[in-house]
Amino acid sequence: MTAIETTEHPAPAPDRAPRGPGRAGPGMPPAAPGLASALVWGAGQLLNRQAGKAAFFFTFFAGMLVWEIATGNYYVGMEFTARLNGGFFVRGLWGLITLGTQPREMTMTGLTEGDNSIVLMANGLIAFLTLALLAVIWIWSIRDAAGYRAELNAGRRPETSRAYFKRLWESAFAYIALSPGLVLLVFMSVLPVLFGILVAFTNYNRDNLPPKNLVSWVGTDNFATLFAVPSWTETFAGILVWTVVWAVIATVTTYAAGMLLAVMLASRRVKFPRVWRSVFLLPWAVPAIVSALVFRSMFNGQFGPVSQWLVDIGLTDERVYWFTDPTSPNLARGVALLVNLWLGFPFFMALVGGVLANIPDSYYEAARIDGAGAFQQFRYITVPIVQRTVTPLIILSFVHNFNNFGVIYFLTEGGPDNVDYRFAGSTDLLVTWLFKLTLDNRLYNIGAVMSLVIFVIVGAISVLNLNRTKAIREL
Amino acid sequence: MSAIPGTNRTRRGSVEGRQRMRDGATSAVMHLILAVVAVIVIYPLVWVVGSSFGPGGGLANATPIPENATFDNYVHLFTQTNYGRWYLNSLYVATINMVGSVALSALCGWVFARIRFRGRKASMLGILILQMFPSFLTAIAVYMLFLNFGLLDSLTGLALVSIAAALPYNTWLMKGYTDNLPASLDEAAALDGAGRLTIFRKIVLPLMRPMLTFVAITSFTAPWMDFILPRLLLQSSDKQTVALGLFQMITDQYSNDFTTFAAGAVALALPITILYIVLQRHLVTGAMAGAEKG
Fold it and tell me: Are the Cβ atoms of B30 and A462 closer than 8 angstroms?
């Protein structure tokens, strides 16, 4: 590359006319090298006499072709089919489009190896993403070829290949530093997310499990199932309403209780505030899974101490089956909210406590001089200041509660059973329902639709929240 | 107040007395409320700690203050069950998760904060969107993929998925924190001829320590409590993490061994609780920083 480039630009050449007569046809329109690069990457650069860039782009072109041929089966003299002869890209795209054509079959020689639709889909997705990345390079090469020629024709003297790559290399540090994180994200987050979206449009469920069966595309049937089949729609609507109610009440109660305690602890009348504070922080510090499982045992209908205690003091005649009594779903819901209050208030208490400590005393003194009572001081000084700082966290907390898998699943496992619901109990949130659909019932396609619905809801709230913060403006 | 002594002493005295009585009443009510809350907060914890030392076995016999306290449950836990194995598994995942998360998010956050490059805005927007996608939704897709590629049941795989799941958020935190660090130090070092990586290691990293601590604590403690990811990605009994094992202990219909569960719960909760209480200030400020940055 270096050798070629030195001949390309022998020494600093101020004497060379900007139009570069004799180097390439001066009258060539910019579209010509662009078109050449569109056909064979780098050809346009070659027409522009930029061997370095030409080699760079051609490497990607050749690499793509070699990879395809090496992974494929192009030499055997039989009829070409994408399934048997295609390489990484052709077979990948074929798999993504068809999801396999050959089911596993019983033959004389035993079980034949059928197509595994999900593996094909994932490989196809990887091939597609790689092609998309290559397409970016392809467009880059076309634009570069045409742009360079346009510059030449306009009489300017564009950058040499070497200067171009030097500039590129200097800015490449950022990409190199980001690459480990990027690779991890692409394979562990982006790819699965795209895959999950695709599954929402297939019939991948317990009736179509690869490698035994083939999976096929079904368009928007799954959305229709969820939003048009009455039993599903009823379950979805019921759970959605409860999820929203749960998220609102859970957030409001934890915030209110946390605020109340923080204000009390800030008062000069309370003795040993730090001791109280440390005690109240315990539910936050103890892992939520442990606390939730402990409460599950305490509220166990048959053996749990709470039921026993209620019988002992004569409040109830028989044991209360908190989470398993289908006739009283609201009892289970109420207890779940109370347990969530226990788990959630310390976080807000700590937050509000921190804010309160930073409100200058002079505010209150001024208010007292103006004759404000304790309540007025609270209402017009404390609340607005706290509110302003804590609002983003309240919204985050709402989102967290909306997706609060832990409390519900560990405490009630969604119970008590609800006969009107599809695969769900009365306290199930959208997420726990999704979890049951996927893991226990293997309805992956419906689960994928649910994931999308939850993402849209949560995403909308997050976008609203982001608009308020400076995050977006800083982008 | 004492400007005109003697003129209306009696009246003032009675007002002050009433005031003091009202103060005393308010204070008593407040302490009463605090005490009730404290009892509600402490009772379940005392109950499970007490049960873990109880001689019984079943849930019905569990009491907060056992009569013949014994360590049998803990001995049983570590000798008769796989708990020790699970504990080591969790420790393994937690350690990888902590090291990986801190290293990757610090590097990425710093690059986003300090270097201007093509595609920066687009990738930050991408990170924001990924961060909104709840991690368990990704987890379910990862599960379907791993299932078909035969990658399930690997602790290292679990750790990698955990790192990736939290990376967008952690990167965002680190970027926000680095934004607020003075750039003049970097520039001075660059003038002295320091390379970019040297500036990162010698100058920026030490300044980022509070945020590094926050990410380190949260990513070390998360795998101990996480349930969904390990439940999806791990299968065999000797590959479980503590959270999975505990959940199984308590849902297993045929086991009537509540006191062993209690011992397991205490053994899991104790170190994390102490860590949280000791480092609470860090954790609360870190959470605030995250929220303000979106």
Answer: no
